[in-house]
Each structure stands twice: as C-alpha cells, then as structure tokens.
Amino acid sequence: MTGTVESRLAALGVTLPAAAAPAANYVPFVLSGKLLYTAGQLPLEGGRLAATGLLGRDLDTAAGKASARLCAINVLAQAKAATGDLEAIARLVKITVFVASTADFTEQHLVANGASDLLAEALGDKGRHARSAVGVASLPLNAPVEVEAVFEIA
Fold first, then answer.
1. Cβ distance 125 to 23 under 8 Å?
2. Among 14, 32, 63, 134, which is most exposed with the fewest C-beta within 10 angstroms?
3. Element (H, E) at 94
C-alpha cells in the first residue's frame, strides 16, 4: 500500500475532525516513551453522537460497525493531535472496542471490524493490530461503541 496515511484517508473519503476535548477529568492521550495511548473515542460526527443505544435492541450489527468506524476516525484525530503528523506512527499495536449490547448479542467482533477495517486501510501494514472486542452494559452518553488504541511512535 503506497501513499501517506492522509492520502489513504482522503481516498476513503475521510477528513479527520478536530480531536475531541475530554468530557470529564482525563486527558485525550498520553505519550509514554514510544507508546501513544488514546482515551476511548465515541462515534462523534460533527461534534454529536452519530448513534445511540444498545446493539441487539436499538441498533443492528451494520449500524454498530459504522459507529466503530467513526470511533476509529476519532482515534486517528487524537493520534494526529498528539504527534502532529500521522506519519509518526510506526505501528498500531492494539485497539480495544467496547460494544454496548444486550446480554444475548454476540457479534461484538463484527462490530469491531468497523474500526479494524478503517485503521488497516488508513495505516496500511502499520495498521495490523491486536484487538479485544468487549460487550458492556452501557457506555457514556448512551454511545453504542467506544474505541481506544495504543500506537508505537517512531
């Protein structure tokens, strides 16, 4: 895969938003040594949640996957705010995807693909990552998905 991260994002029709400000008592990212940790990012679009509710009750898997994709875009916005340049990313180490879902919903891994797919497309080989997809009872602001990431910085 050739080109810069920004050019691959543009080819996907993605424009990174301004990095979201923290909604409580935390910082949006922490750089420790060569590792960049992002705080969990919600599916914000235009400063508002693009979807709300539980997977398996209010939303289907496709809507959850679209929400996870938005979360990943917001993760990249935080990475850019932290580094100033997405080319500083040596690799994406791991993402954790939290999926607010009913007790009988079992497609968290498919919802998480929305984030994984976008990150792999945008970052190329540097975007291949470990991942956890976790079902939870609820998330802040009734968000359906939240994604956090760990990057290695060059």
1. no
2. 32
3. strand 89-100
How many Cβ atoms sit within 10 Å of the Cβ of residue 7?
A: 11
Of 21, 116, 132, nearest in space to 68 by CA: 116
pTM above 0.85, yes or no: yes
- CA-atom Rg of the chain in angstroms: 14
- Residue 14's identity, in one-letter code, is V
Task: Enter the tokens of residue 56.
Answer: 């398996």
How far apart, in Å, are the Cα atoms of 37 and each of 13, 54, 89? 26, 26, 12
- Please return the burial class of 9, using the count of CB atoms within 10 Å of its CB with bins 0-12, 13-18 and 19+: buried
Identify the pLDDT of residue 2.
63
Over residues 114-135, mean pLDDT: 98
